Amino acid sequence: MIEAAPAGRQLILPLPPIHRYELNALLTDASNAEALAWLRRPEGWPQGRLALFGPAATGKTHMLQGLAAARGWPVLEGPSLRGLPEVPPGPGLGLDDADCAAEERALLHLLNLCAERGQLVLLAGREAPARWPVALPDLRSRLRAMPAVGIRPPGDALLAALLRRDFARRQLRVEEGVQAWLLARLPREAAAVAEAAARLDRAALAAGGRVTRALARSVLAELPGFGSDDESMALAEPDCPGPPSLL
Question: Is 23-150 CATH 3.40.50.300?
Answer without folding.
Answer: yes
